[in-house]
């Protein structure tokens, strides 16, 4: 029985059935500082029921409580403050962490359920910019968190390899491009053509008509259109994969929009069979008024498909292939309304997993307060940012630890980790204004700070390599260690919360908190003093190292042993 359960049980007995165990547990609070106890029970809500002042209720309860399991229980105004038995609590916590190792916090709540995650999804023939970072790293971290909670995630890089933009790109290439230039510098040249198209079509709107014709040719299997499309796709994928390798992100499938092109006919037929398609100004739409939504446009007046047509085919394929427990779309917040429409259409179609479809939105990433856009030519390349971050990390490491053996490898771990952590420490729906120098600081709420805290723990363990650190008898009485021990005990609950909320920032903020408590402990206690509690203190250091490394892993960040 953990301490929350012990507090709940003691209060339930004292309250004699006036609140259920669940009601008591829901009211328990965590005091901000340990001097006010380790768990608190407010009595305000009982005042109306018991017709007594909250302070009196707290005192009456304290008089009835069985305090055997606690160091002490104090009444402070309307609060009952519970102080845990530090020695027993530290022993139980450290033994649990050291016995489980990297598996600490793992649970089987997901029962092996499949969870396809639509993530990253860059558009072919455009470079991966900072705008692609968020979906990629948020989706990757959510996959790790889901696995930790017993689910089976399927990371699906749903490439933007179809659509009207290819009509525009082919048009631009035919007008201004040449093969030699594209082969020499594929992505940059293709982007140059794409940006030029959008500048020129302001004064020449007829270009849009030509682009629509080329996309229709592509849909109809035109040989030249298909050859150009395939070439653009392969060149792009090669560049994308270099970035993914740098980020340490892998995918289970790259089924882009084109994969579903031959599945659109069935979608349209199902919609017709269910009498869901209605004509509107020559186009085919699904009426969603009963969901208080605008009609979903399924086919244009010329019969061309749209994003939603392909997304319906995608959802249908995932439903049949994976029978998903959840079907997640890690896509920017600006698409929230669109996903409401998609979900409504799927429900109307009777797709089994429609209720499990969940949009996982995130805010914009800006640079100097300005939104990034390929169309306007305002692009900051992700590969260049990662390269610069690794370079700056290398300079800092060289300054701090010039004798470090594997400086280049550590610089990469720190530089890339700083970018990933810097994104994930923010609640995903918040907008982020990116400043590289801020992400790379070794102090403050950064990835390098957490990595350095882990490396510090490993350094202590190396210095004490002659001491046997075991998962037994780790009884610590040092009050300076108390906040760290409590933080370690919180990890399984943080793993569950991050999964429930699909929120990597829960883990990132937890890692910062654990690192801070550990560094405070390190500053105030002589860990390597030769006395009876030395093995227990080292067990604490080992537990911190284990949990910091696992927290970083759940975020997709590596944890070097030396920095």
Automatic annotation (TrEMBL):
<keyword id="KW-0436">Ligase</keyword>
<dbReference type="InterPro" id="IPR001278">
    <property type="entry name" value="Arg-tRNA-ligase"/>
</dbReference>
<dbReference type="InterPro" id="IPR036695">
    <property type="entry name" value="Arg-tRNA-synth_N_sf"/>
</dbReference>
<keyword id="KW-0963">Cytoplasm</keyword>
<dbReference type="InterPro" id="IPR005148">
    <property type="entry name" value="Arg-tRNA-synth_N"/>
</dbReference>
<keyword id="KW-0030">Aminoacyl-tRNA synthetase</keyword>
<dbReference type="GO" id="GO:0004814">
    <property type="term" value="F:arginine-tRNA ligase activity"/>
</dbReference>
<feature type="domain" description="Arginyl tRNA synthetase N-terminal">
    <location>
        <begin position="5"/>
        <end position="84"/>
    </location>
</feature>
<dbReference type="Pfam" id="PF05746">
    <property type="entry name" value="DALR_1"/>
</dbReference>
<feature type="short sequence motif" description="'HIGH' region">
    <location>
        <begin position="122"/>
        <end position="132"/>
    </location>
</feature>
<keyword id="KW-0067">ATP-binding</keyword>
<comment type="subunit">
    <text>Monomer.</text>
</comment>
<dbReference type="InterPro" id="IPR008909">
    <property type="entry name" value="DALR_anticod-bd"/>
</dbReference>
<feature type="domain" description="DALR anticodon binding">
    <location>
        <begin position="450"/>
        <end position="563"/>
    </location>
</feature>
<dbReference type="Pfam" id="PF03485">
    <property type="entry name" value="Arg_tRNA_synt_N"/>
</dbReference>
<dbReference type="InterPro" id="IPR035684">
    <property type="entry name" value="ArgRS_core"/>
</dbReference>
<keyword id="KW-0547">Nucleotide-binding</keyword>
<keyword id="KW-0648">Protein biosynthesis</keyword>
<dbReference type="InterPro" id="IPR009080">
    <property type="entry name" value="tRNAsynth_Ia_anticodon-bd"/>
</dbReference>
<protein>
    <recommendedName>
        <fullName>Arginine--tRNA ligase</fullName>
        <ecNumber>6.1.1.19</ecNumber>
    </recommendedName>
</protein>
<dbReference type="Pfam" id="PF00750">
    <property type="entry name" value="tRNA-synt_1d"/>
</dbReference>
<comment type="similarity">
    <text>Belongs to the class-I aminoacyl-tRNA synthetase family.</text>
</comment>
<dbReference type="InterPro" id="IPR014729">
    <property type="entry name" value="Rossmann-like_a/b/a_fold"/>
</dbReference>
